[in-house]
Structures are given as C-alpha cells and as structure tokens.
Give the backbone structure.
Amino acid sequence: MRKDKDVRKPGNVMIRISAACFGLALLTACQAAQNNEQVEKTQIQSTLLENTMAVMPEKILSNNTCASGAKNRWAVNAAEYAQLFAQLRGGMLSSPAPQPPLVDFSRYGVLLIAMGQQRTGGYGITLSAQPLVSQGDVAILQIEWQEPSPDMMVIQMLSSPCLLVKVPRGSYSRIQVVDQRNQIRAEVTTR
C-alpha cells in the first residue's frame, strides 16, 4: 500500500471536504442566478400582460361539412348566432335539429371561421389552447389549420371545414384568426 495515496490522512480529508463545500457553494450560486433570471422573465411577462388582455375562447362546435357558402362572420345577438349555427350544421343530418348552446351576448360574441369548400378530406380547423390576446383594437385568435400533405391518402369527397367559437367581448374592433405558422387565415370586424 502506498502511503502518499492514503485517503484517511487528515490533509486528504480536509481537501475533500473543502472541494465538497466549494461545489455546494457553486451549485447554490448557479441556482440563485437561475432564480433571478426566472424572476426577471416573470416581471417582463407581467408587464406585457398589463398592456394586453388574454382570455380563453371556447369552441361551440366544429364540422367538416359546413354549408358550402359559409363565410367568416361575427355574431353579436341570438338571431345572428342561430343563423351561424345553422350554417355550421348545414351538412349534418339529424332530426330534430339541435338548438345552439346558450351564449350571454352581453359578455360574448360568436365567431364562425370557415375554410371554404375543399376537394378532398384531410382538412380541418381546431381551436388552439392559446388564449385570445387583445392588443389595442386587434384581438388574435390562435387556431390549428390542417391540410393534407401532397402524398397523403385522403377520401375523395367535398368537405367544408368550419369552427364556431365563443369569444369574450373586449375593446377590440377586429379579430385576426392566426394559424400555427402565424399565417392570418381570417379577419373579421366586431363592430
């Protein structure tokens, strides 16, 4: 056994304890820096939210066989809403036709987003899990816009995807519907 490598010597133990303390101090300093960075991010996000309004829209109904002439529209009362709901259900066969879910139009409006007539299946619109963000007079509504890839096998039938969304009213005068690639797919006025 070599005497110069003996870990039980008091000097070697002190070196190991010192190294462990240094490592712990370094780890604590890194954690504190990370916490400070997180606090700064939270403060920036809070400042951004003070200047914007973020609320969650709600899906009322989606359909892949919407009436072929359906257009992007904003409804602010029960009569307009019933008309939009009927357009959304245009291709559905059911008797009796269901009534649209109730909406408090003093607090909400209803937005119909229509993709238009497509020559095949594989198309669709879904509501993103992102909140509606309002900045000034424009509100941004995030959606997922699905289109089949060119090499995808799809059913050969006409489709007309659309989505009906309940949106909290705000001080905005326009709603931009933006897809997952930040492409504006629709824009409607709310006044």
Remarks:
- The longest strand covers residues 138-146.
- Strands lie at 53-55, 58-63, 73-75, 108-114, 124-127, 132-135, 138-146, 162-168, 174-178, 184-189.
- Residues 53-189 form one domain.
